[in-house]
Amino acid sequence: MKNLKTLAGAVALSALMAGSAAAADMTVGFSQIGSESGWRAAETTLTKQQAEQRGIDLKFADAQQKQENQIKAIRSFIAQGVDAILLAPVVATGWDQVLEEAKDAEIPVVLLDRQVDSSDDLYLTAVGSDLEHEGEVAGDWLVKEVGDKDCNVVELQGTTGSSPAIKRKAGFEKAISGHDNVKIVRSQTGDFTRTKGKEVMESFLKAENGGQDICALYAHNDDMAVGAIQAIKEAGLKPGSDILVVSIDAVPDIFLAMENGEANATVELTPNMAGPAFDALEAYKSDGTEPPKFIQTESKLYTQSDNPKAIYEEKKNQGY
Amino acid sequence: MIGSRLFPLATTFVIFILAYALCYAQFPNMLSTRVIGNLLTDNAFLGIAAVGMTFVILSGGIDLSIGSVIAFTGVFLAVTMGEGGVPPLFAILLVLAITTAFGALMGAMIHYLAMPPFIVTLAGMFFARGMAFLISTDSVPIRVELYDTLQDLYFRMPGGGRLSFVGMAMLAVVVAGIVIAHFTSFGRNVYAIGGNRQSAELMGVPIARTTILIYALSSFLAGLAGIAFSLYTSAGYSLAAVGVELDAIAAVVIGGTLLTGGSGYVAGTLLGILIMGLIQTYIVFDGTLSSWWTKIVIGLLLFSFIALQRGLVWLSARRRGAAAIPA
User: Fold this and answer.
1) How many contacts does A have with B, using Cβ atoms within 8 A?
2) Minimal Cα distance from A76: which residue of B?
3) Which protein family is it in (chain A) (predicted)?
4) Which among B235, B237, B287 is the nearest to A58, CB-wise?
5) Cβ within 8 Å, pair A75-B235
6) What is the pLDDT of residue A24?
7) Which of A29, A232, B61, B73 falls between 20 and 30 A from B209, CA-CA?
8) How high is the pLDDT of residue B324?
9) Is B152 on the interface with A (CB under 8 A)?
C-alpha cells in the first residue's frame, strides 16, 4: 500500500515536471569573474538558485579575476558540449576568438552585467542594467516626494571617473531638470565606501548650516548612504525625516535603515541577471526566438512601504 | 643510476595516464580532440615559459621574473604596434631582443656579483612589472593583421578540435628544448653546473657564459610566451600573468626535475603542464567544485613529488654508501 502511494506520488511529480522538460534538459556553463564584491557573490548565488528552480544543470567556473581562466573555462564548456554559456567578462577586450569557437559549435553565449568589444553577432544577447536609468529612477522618486517644496540636495558621488558614478549622476540630473525647486547644492566623491561617505557627509553638514539647509541626500550607492546616515545622526538630525535619503544598489543593510525609518528609498541593481538570461535561452531553444541584443534588467524602486524587514531577511542569505 | 633518473619522469607519465583515464571514466567527452586541442592551446604560454624554467632549475637556479616579462611583452607589443605604429614583425623582434638582453643581464649579475638567483630575479620581477605599468595601466587591445592571420591558423582535427598556432608553437619549443638539453654542449654544461658546480668548474665548464645563457634563454622564452599570451587574449595588460612563474616552477617539479638541479627532462615539463591543465579541465567539466581545488591538487602533487625526490636522493646515497664499503 505504501509503495503504491509513493508510486502515485512519483507519477504526479513527473507529470508536473514534464511541463518544464525543455529547461530540464539544458546544461549551461557559467564563467563568473570571481567573488570580489558582495554584489557579485549575490549574483553567483542567484544564478545557482535560478538554475535549480528551472531544473537547469549549471556548470560553474570561478575565474579568480583572470581572463585566461575564463577563456579556458569557455573552451572546456564547448568541449563538453553544453547547451549554452553565460559569461560575466572580466575585461572587455580579447573575446573574439573564443566566442567564434562557441558560435562554430552552435552554442549560444549570453553576457551578464558587463559588455565586450566583440561584434554582437558573436553572442546571443547581453543582460545588464542601465546605470543612467537607475539615477533617473532615484531622481523621479525625489521629485515626486518633495512636490512643490524647495529642496536642496547634497550628492555623494561614486569613484571619480568610474562609469557608474558618471551615469548615475547624469541620470539623476536628467530627472530633476525642469523642477527648479529641486537643486543639487553640493556634490563630492565618497568613493563608494562607507567611511568616505560618512566623512564627506560631515563636511556637507558643517558647510550647510549644521544640516539645517539640506533637504535630501542622494548617494550613488547604499554603502555611502549608510555612512552618511551615521553622520546625520551624530549631527543631531533625523535621517529619513529631517534629511531624506535616497541611494542605489539595494544591498541588505539599506533595508535595515529603511525599517528604522533612517533611509527613504533605494533603486535596485538586481543581482538576478541569470533569470532574464535563462528566459531568453529557453525561448531561443524552444522555438528559435531571437532576443534583442541588450536585455535591460528592471531598476526597481524600494521605499519604506515595501516591507523592508522582509526584503532584508530575503537578501541577507544571498551572499552580499 | 639511469633507472632512478628516469623514475620521476615515469611516475609523472603514469599519473597523467591514470588521471586522464579517471576523467574519461566520469566524462567520456574528456577524450576528444577538442579537449586535447584546448589543453595545448590554453597552456601554450605557460608551456613555453616552463621550458625556459626547466633549464634554469636544471642548473640549480630559479627565475621569478617570467610572469612579469610575459606581461611586459604583451603591453609593449600592444602599445608599439597600436599607438606606436611599429610594424608587427619588427615589434616582435624588438621585444624578444629586449627580454633576452634583460635575462642576460640578470644572469651576469647572478654570476659576477655572486648573488642568489632568487634575489636577482625577484628584483627582475618587480622591475619588469613596473615597466609594464609605466607603458600602460589599461588593457590595450591588439588589432593588427598579423595577429588575425596567426589566430586563424589552425589545424582542424577530426571531431572539431583545433590544434592552434600557439599550441603548435609550444610543441615546437618543447622539441627544441629537448634537442638543446640533450644534444648540445650548452645542454651538457647546464646539467653539469646543476649537478655539482665545483666539479663542473674543474672539468672546464664555462660557468660565466653558461649562466648568462641560461637566464637569457629563460627570458627569451618568457618573451615568446608573452607573444603567445597576447595572441591568446588579443590584448596587452600589465596585470596579466601574475604568478605564472610559480605555475611554471610547479610544472617543472611535477614533471620530475630535481629542484636542486642536475636531473630532469624537458619532456617531463610538458607532462607537468598537461597534468595541471587536466585538473583545471576536470573542475570545469564537473562544474560544482570550487576552482581553488586546482591549487589544492597542485599543492598536494608538489608535496608528493618533493617527497619522492628526497626519497630517491636518499636511496641512491645509501646504495652508493653500500657500494663504497666493500671497496
Assistant:
1) 89
2) B281
3) Belongs to the bacterial solute-binding protein 2 family.
4) B287
5) no
6) 55
7) B73
8) 55
9) no
Chain B residue with Cα closest to A60: B287
Report yes or no: B50 and B251 within 8 Å, Cβ to Cβ.
yes
* CA distance, residue B152 to nearest chain A CA (Å): 9
Where are the extended beta strands (E) located within chain B?
140-141, 154-156, 162-164, 235-236
- Please indicate if any CB of chain A lies within 8 Å of the CB of B288: yes
Residue spans of chain B under pLDDT 70: 1-4, 322-327
Closest alpha carbon within chain A to B33: A79
B290 interfaces chain A, CB cutoff of 8 Å:
yes
Q: Residue A126: pLDDT above 90?
A: yes
Query: Which residues of chain B make contact with A57, given a CB cutoff of 8 A?
Result: 287
Interchain pair B35, A72: CB under 8 A: no
Q: Give the tens place of pLDDT for each residue, B216-239.
A: 999 999 999 999 999 998 889 888
* Structural domain for B148, as ranges: 2-319
Give residue B1's pLDDT: 45
CB contact under 8 A, B141 and A117: yes
Q: What is the DSSP letter of B288?
A: S
List, in order, residues 6 or more apart from A142 with CB less than 8 Å away.
Answer: A151, A153, A175, A176, A182, A216, A218, A244, A246, A265
Nearest chain A alpha carbon to B293: A62
Domain assignment present for B259: yes
Q: Do A94 and B285 touch (CB under 8 A)?
A: no
- Does residue A4 surpass a pLDDT of 50? no
CATH topology (fold) of A131-269+304-315? Rossmann fold (3.40.50)
- Please indicate, yes or no, if residue B132 is contained in any of the structural domains: yes
Asked if the structure places residue B82 within a domain, the reply is yes
Instruction: Tell whether B128 is covered by a domain.
Output: yes
Predicted local confidence at residue A2, as pLDDT: 46
* Beta pairing partners, A216: A153, A244
Mark out chain A residues that contact chain B at CB-CB < 8 A: 29, 57-64, 67-69, 71-73, 75-81, 91-94, 96-97, 101, 104-105, 117
pLDDT of A19 above 60: no
ipTM beyond cut 0.85: no
C-alpha distance from B280 to closest chain A C-alpha (Å): 8
Interchain pair A68, B160: CB under 8 A = no
Say whether residue B243 is in contact with chain A using an 8 A CB cutoff: no
Query: In this complex, do A72 and B141 lie within 8 Å of one another by their Cβ atoms?
Result: no
CATH 3.40.50.200 fits domain A20-128+271-289: no
Mean pLDDT across A309-316: 92
